[in-house]
Amino acid sequence: MACPPLLSTPMRHFLEVAQAGSVHRAATRLFVAPSAVSRQIAKLEDGLGTPLFERQSRGMVLTAAGQRLAGHLRHVVLDAEQVLDQVRHLGRQSAARVRVCCTEGFASGFMPAFMQAFMADTPGSQIELLVGSPDEVAGWVLRGDADIGLKYAVAPEPGLRVAHAAQAPVMAVMAPDHPLAGRSVVTLPEVVGYPLLVGSQGMTARQLFDLACSARGLRYTPVFVSNFSSVMLPLLRSPQVLLSGLLTVHHLLSAGQAVVRPFDEPVLTQRRLLVLALEGRTLSGPVAACIERMIDFVGRHSGEPAAPASAAGPLRAGPDAATPQG
């Protein structure tokens, strides 16, 4: 997140240190000497009468007061960027910029289809896409590096507002000629008897599958492990089984190249698909429109009806909520 010039120097230096976790890294990003950054932090702490950082051997760690100030400043920066964009483009056509981030499972099939549909519906729109791990997606939205996040999750996301949540069970994906393809539901003992393609241990599908197997005393040895599902999808051949969510393989199902079967296992239903935004942020018109379009697209491609924003409240669009020109 780049700090706009509307912030004072002490505030800009504070926010950079909070994001970098180090005075030296912040100084490098700001193109100033580390001593200058330290002076600005000390000046800010003296003015507020409270320490904002704990100086530790591993770097600068925010205190409770520092966390409160950093969260507020991130909202200020995002709102300032939004206003500056409106001022720069006032009176002339401009691209409606929307920054989206997602986990890798959505990047190969779902996201290209969604972006194509959104850009067709919104002429002049500009989408920036970041792809990373579940933790990276949450971090990008929290820091304001992305407006919208799309990920699977098995736990709440502090500081983020859930614009939409849908059940996203872990499924068994297989070739149409697989011996289990004729079944309506599959069991864990059946599936672990086949060669398995699984995600790395940090991925939600793998976490839940390992938990379910452990609870039932089952062991398995995968034939292929990767944190990149786009590599595994082309490898899928009978009798192999891939663990995945429906949206990740939707393009393969549509092409008749694979089938999915649910597990007869409650643990594997404890995952949700989340569309995320920063808690408390007023969304620009293009961002709010993109979220609504994404919710609809998720519903139509997952077989579930589109749902409104969660109980956290309706999407709040800013004063530029009208459809942008372009």
CATH architecture of the largest domain: 3-Layer(aba) Sandwich
Overall number of strands: 12
Termini gap:
26 Å
Instruction: Summarize model confidence as the mean pLDDT.
Output: 84
Question: Which superfamily, in CATH terms, is the homologous superfamily of the largest domain?
Answer: Periplasmic binding protein-like II
The structure class reads alpha/beta
Count of domain modules: 3
| DSSP strand content | 15-25%
Tags for this model:
326 residues, alpha/beta, Arc Repressor Mutant, subunit A, D-Maltodextrin-Binding Protein, domain 2, 3 domains, five-stranded mixed sheet, 12 helices, 20% strand, elongated, disordered C terminus
Q: Topology of this protein?
A:
Blueprint: H1 9-20, H2 23-30, H3 34-48, E1 53-56, E2 59-62, H4 64-89, E3 96-103, H5 104-107, H6 110-121, E4 125-132, H7 134-143, E5 148-153, E6 160-167, E7 171-174, H8 188-191, E8 196-199, H9 204-215, E9 224-226, H10 229-232, E10 241-244, H11 250-254, E11 259-262, E12 272-278, H12 285-302
Parallel strand pairs: 3-4, 3-5, 8-9, 8-10
Antiparallel strand pairs: 1-2, 5-12, 6-12, 7-10, 7-11
Helix pairs in contact: 1-2, 1-3, 1-4, 2-3
How do you describe this structure in short?
The protein is of the alpha/beta class and 326 residues long. The protein is built from 12 helices and 12 strands. The strands form 3 sheets. It has a 5-stranded mixed beta sheet, with helices on both faces. The protein has a 5-stranded mixed beta sheet with strand order 9-8-10-7-11. The chain has a two-stranded antiparallel sheet with strand order 1-2.
